[in-house]
Amino acid sequence: MAKQGLQPPPLSLLDQYRGRGFHPLYTTTVTVTGGETGHGRASGVARSDDGNLDIHLRLPAALGGPGDGTNPEQLFAAGYAACFHGALHLLARRAGLPVDDFSVAVEVAFGRDPVDGAYALAAKVRVRMPGVARPLAEELVRNTERFCPYVKMAGQGIASIVAVVD
Hints:
The chain is an alpha+beta fold. It has helices at about 40-45, 70-95, 135-145, 150-155, and strands at about 30-35, 45-50, 55, 105-110, 120-130. It has four helices and five strands, in the order βαββαββαα. The chain is globular, with a radius of gyration of 19 Å. The protein starts with about 30 loop residues before the first strand and ends in a 10-residue tail after the last helix.
């Protein structure tokens, strides 16, 4: 039996959920260890619980590091862009639009936060939809913003529990 090629997720993911609480559909864990400097951002290794993600983290050259690995901002930008692109793709498919040439670029900036003097992230999302009329493209992007959980997280925050474990 021949293997079927990769397929996009089903349009049923667009169906509204009517439950009372958060209903997880997928859960993953990524663990970062400190590497040779003992500092996860500077020399860490990030590994997922299923082994599919196994990357070396390095401080970017712009922050005084060697820059010969990835960093948290790149990982966040990749996740944000992939999620937005996926949501955009689903909504466009439901509308019967061609999606082959759509692209989403997310720029993430790490910088100083004037509110508390510590650090913050800023993100810019740029969407290209060749062949789609601008008013329709803008409507599709606005709908994607309402649907994409990364946009929701960036704007409203995320449920986060931080705990010390043995």
